[in-house]
Amino acid sequence: MVSVVGIGPGAPEYITPAALKRIKEAEVLVGAKRHLNLFKDLACKKIPLEAGLDLGKVLKSPGRVAVIATGDPGIYGILDLVLKHVSEEEVDVIPGISSVQYMMARLRLPAKDTAVVSLHGRGGDIVSAVRNHSTVVVLTDPVNNPVKIARLLLENGILDREIYVGQNLSYENEAIEKYGVKELAGSTGEFDINVVVIRICGNTESEYPMISF
């Protein structure tokens, strides 16, 4: 049996007791180096998840194997990759707090009429999602970044939205900033790993001040 374990948005305090229990039970722990470093005191074998790794072979290692990743493994997460190598019957999934959940909680927003779109390493029709939902949460990457998203909205005449950009969520250097579409589209700033929330608002010409939570 392979355990696929979500370890939350990043900071150790958001790892659930169930996730921690499964990790401590593992004899083989697989994950990104920065995630494995959170458990450097555990005696189990640790295997970095990196290019060139024969994951299928690792998952069939004798003993209890746990694959860890931030967020929730089933929400645009590591579960898809694991299921390419083992069957559903061989997998036990321990959910984690996703960056989407964390960001919405920090903004004190309910998830009603919310769409989640991942542009992380993939394309997606963000314009249609924004037109059809009052709130859209976007998982970004360095190419599909907040500025590019805002420019797409501007090009398509969508101005009645406010955009929140959350960076380094759950860490000490966390920052959540609020923008208008025009303001963000014209930004020359650089963004770290982030989650974007786009919400409908009433004033199409408002320029929103940058604020930190």
Distance between the termini: 41 Å
Category by helix and strand content: alpha/beta
Query: What's the order of the H and E elements?
Result: EHEHEHEHEHEHEHEEHE
Biggest sheet record: 5 strands, parallel
The helix content, as a percent range, equals: 10-25%
The poorly predicted ranges are 203-213
Number of domains: 2
CATH architecture of the largest domain: 2-Layer Sandwich
CATH superfamily of the largest domain: Tetrapyrrole methylase, C-terminal domain
Number of distinct helices: 8
- Determine and state the CATH class of the largest domain: Alpha Beta
Query: Which sequence of strands runs across the widest sheet?
Result: 3-2-4-1-5
How does this model look, in words?
It contains 8 helices and 10 strands. It has helices at 17-25, 33-36, 55-59, 79-82, 99-106, 126-132, 146-155, 181-185, and strands at residues 2-6, 28-31, 45-48, 65-69, 91-94, 114-118, 135-139, 161-167, 175-180, 194-200. The strands form 2 sheets. Strands 3-2-4-1-5 form a 5-stranded parallel sheet. A 5-stranded mixed sheet has the order 6-7-10-8-9, sandwiched between helices. A hairpin with a 7-residue loop joins β8 (161-167) and β9.
Which key features would you list for this structure?
213 residues, alpha/beta, Cobalt-precorrin-4 Transmethylase, domain 1, Methyltransferase, Cobalt-precorrin-4 Transmethylase, Domain 2, 2 domains, 5-stranded parallel β-sheet, 5-stranded mixed β-sheet, 8 helices, 10 strands, 24% helix, disordered C terminus
